[in-house]
Each structure stands twice: as structure tokens, then as C-alpha cells.
Design a protein that fits this description.
Length: 72
């Protein structure tokens, strides 16, 4: 960096996009599901991780719940 930059008078501020940052997590997804999203990724040009995120976000926004019944 150049010596003539003076950052001592610079006022810091919070990152306004902090709420949009993604959090890395570990999740186990079966191979068929990954294959499906990877094939969709090839069609759309988006990464399969982005497609999975978009799908899960859509479910969360619309409060979709699975209708499933566990058999004893």
C-alpha cells in the first residue's frame, strides 16, 4: 500500500449487508438429490449450491412444511 494514504481520520461503519451473508453449514444430502440439482445447474448456469439455497429459502419464506407420517 502506498505510504501517503492516511486512514487515521477515516470513520468506520458497520457492514450494511451483514444480514445477507451466508453461513457455512455441513448437511448430509443423498446422491440422487445432489445429482438432480447438479443437472438443474447445468441447464440454468447457476451453481447447484445456489439452487439448493434458493429452493430452501422459498420453502422458508412461504412457510412450507412437509406432510409426512412416521410409521411405527
Amino acid at each position: 500500500m502506498r505510504d501517503h494514504y492516511d486512514f487515521s481520520k477515516m470513520k468506520g461503519r458497520k457492514n450494511p449487508y451483514i444480514k445477507y451473508l451466508k453461513q457455512p453449514v455441513t448437511i448430509r444430502i443423498d446422491r440422487d438429490t445432489i445429482t438432480y440439482f447438479k443437472s438443474m445447474a447445468e441447464e440454468t448456469g447457476a451453481s447447484y449450491q445456489t439452487l439448493i439455497n434458493l429452493y430452501l429459502r422459498d420453502c422458508a419464506v412461504h412457510r412450507r412444511k412437509l406432510k409426512m407420517k412416521w410409521v411405527s
